[in-house]
């Protein structure tokens, strides 16, 4: 019924800031570093200034020759201007393709090739590093946000060109391209359209209504679709924003303390880092009413520390479960009252009217409550295809049901529990994620623990500690006595673990490095005896 009543609504990134400025005026937006595209604009702006900057950048892109429906790859140093450039590309009807600054050159070359001679927006540092071995002459044109080397066109040289009216693509035409995390290989290019993006936005607006207008602090990947939906919600309700590039507690803590946000969202692994802020002077998290967590599972210890840090009456941590390909398909929340009973594997329930979830066995039959199987979802927010890999897309769809690639089960009330990625399962461990949660709860000084296949298929814990302090062998032995049999732990620096743009750990790559003897380990590792 909903589909028939509202058949062609769309979420248009190019209009976001303009509509927010018209509705709310100069609401404050604070950055932790100046924009690369407008370094003189400072770090304290407003909806109105950002809307004008998006309009200005759109005019420059049009003057450079960018036209509707053309692909525009954005691959540059991490900064908030990735967002503004994305909106500017969208505003003239072109299709932004967002590539993570963390990609290596080989992967970037593959993705640029799949985009079929796109325009490329970049910067000198990226051209001299990530793209140094990539043939950028295959691009339709290269635009830079700073000094333009070679035949590239500097966007600064196009300042003052006439403004252009905004262009809306048809709601079912491709309008945004993002890529998957790449935890299992070369990332796939996910193609979004305004209509499917609108179907993701609406339920998130409903979930965000309770905290409308609260100041929000975000440290998230600017190349992930989740960021744009959250930004759409916050702009719609007129929230003042603090947008962070650097998550280091020494850097982020004072900014959070100064702005006292009521809403905070970041990656689960950043939340682990921000546990250090829970008891920090000036209470950087003391005013938080709602934490948001997506991208990956969040550990119970982290949930408890974050909720305890807030002095609000009833703070909550909202968890969304989904993928780039689907958007959120399940949601749930934790409260301070129930923090001691947090079940991290419980990722929530489907979103009424927008998503349905089922768990199936190896023959595609629906599993009864409590039985483990593959998680599948039917959602109005599913992407159109994988650009350059339609066969991979087709393999994951079964009569409208999308294979999530995760294993889990549903309880008798329909709540979904996530156990493992299908490719990460270890036969001797029912759920590696559950064991990891337990270990983090038992060791306050653990920064991260990842259980991967060892060279002999044995479960190997790869551990990172705060300050890279060595684990105590006796404590480790006692703490793991009642857990499934594990190999001796291998200790690493968190910074040395291969990660995605959203700080997800690349488990398969760690297992490969471990088998090949290429995993950087600390001199104290392996520990445990």
From TrEMBL:
InterPro entries, per the entry: AMP-binding_CS, AMP-dep_synth/lig_dom, ANL_N_sf, ATP-dep_AMP-bd_enzyme
Residue ranges constituting the AMP-dependent synthetase/ligase domain according to the UniProt record: 17-386
Entry superkingdom: Bacteria
Gene3D superfamilies given in the database record: N-terminal domain of ligase-like
SUPFAM superfamilies: Acetyl-CoA synthetase-like (SSF56801)
Pfam families per the UniProt record, alphabetical: AMP-binding
Record protein name field: AMP-binding protein
Organism the protein comes from: Streptomyces rugosispiralis
